[in-house]
Input
Amino acid sequence: MAAAIAFPPCLVPAGANELRADVRAFIAQEKAPGTHYTESSREFSRKLGARGWIGMTWPKRWGGADRTSLERYVVVEELIAAGAPIFYHWVADRQSGPLLLRFGTDEQRDRFLPAIARGECGFAIGLSEPNAGSDLAAITTRAVRIDKGWRITGTKIWTSNAQVAEFMIVLCRTSPRGNDRRHGFSQFIVDLGSSGVRVNPIKNMAGQREFNEVVLEEVFVPDKLLLGPVDQGWGQLISELAFERSGPDRFLSALQLCRSFIEEVGDAPTEAEAVLIGRMATHLWTLRHMSASVAGMLQHKSPELEAAIVKDLGTRFEQQIVESCRSLRPAPARGSAYADALIDAQLYMPRVTIQGGTPQILRNAMARELGLR
Ligand SMILES: Cc1cc2nc3c(=O)[nH]c(=O)nc-3n(C[C@H](O)[C@H](O)[C@H](O)COP(=O)(O)OP(=O)(O)OC[C@H]3O[C@@H](n4cnc5c(N)ncnc54)[C@H](O)[C@@H]3O)c2cc1C
Output
């Protein structure tokens, strides 16, 4: 049956304002100026972990704080809006940890979750390959069963965080392709320090080392690091996407530009500038409600449709902001807070509609969920 789109309003939990004030005070004290949330700082992550702000929704038994996903939302939106350097633990907090909670063994949870929550264990996601991005069912990385474990061979690409992370969750083919091309995949937790792993840097447009090519040559992975049942990786992967697609990182990365544009135009905006400021505020507010609604739903289900909508609308909004600011107030060279924010955003924004699923792929998924194709 076709799914219906629903964004139930989300009530801000009691105590959220105090929590928000605590996070702001922490950021004012601990964050260096001029950082972006895609930067990594082990030290910053460890300090956040000590405050109980990583793995917040996980059970206390596994290092979490048993708090609600909306409390986590408050912490995360403050960190991203401020450009705090959280990427070392970001993938693990957002995605790998919840995946381990849902599909991992107790031994895996005991080993990884408390370390992630302390800000001492980073993860990367090994899905994309040189010839398989949107069409992940075409991946060729293979895991072959051997005595006491598996041997993995293949190449992953665009792997964010692998230059600092200790582990990567790798999607592999474990059975030959049959009639159902989505059957026969499994996920493995690979220690990036293992023999046979090579992490080759790829620089982004801004010249930063942010993602990588990860070559796996006959890498041994013990049985105990298989994540979930053999050949059932596809379903796990789909459930992971709701965590990846709906968070405030999907619409707040242009916030710095919005703020500096408002400061730049001051109290005498032209009519077009005033209209843009109004549009920015209303879009941000709406996206925030939609994204917070998904955070609320994540507590008890996996809202892939709504998450895809947030990602599609949020990232297109971010790109439109850059275009609108540039056309109203061009900044050909660095030299002011506004010019720096605009130039950084120009370098950063082309990626946002690609990572985590392109618009075409998101809309295909939405159409499928809605029974339109
Ligand atoms: C900044 C950044 C970080 C990333 N981090 C990671 C990471 O940590 N781990 C990871 O595994 N991957 C990562 N990726 C990879 C990302 O997931 C892929 O780039 C993305 O899925 C698209 O795949 P592709 O680049 O192979 O493009 P392709 O799949 O080749 O797509 C090319 C174009 O064709 C279109 N297209 C493809 N198939 C269809 C279709 N069926 N219908 C209509 N149009 C279609 C696409 O929309 C796109 O416009 C990252 C990418 C970026 C930009």
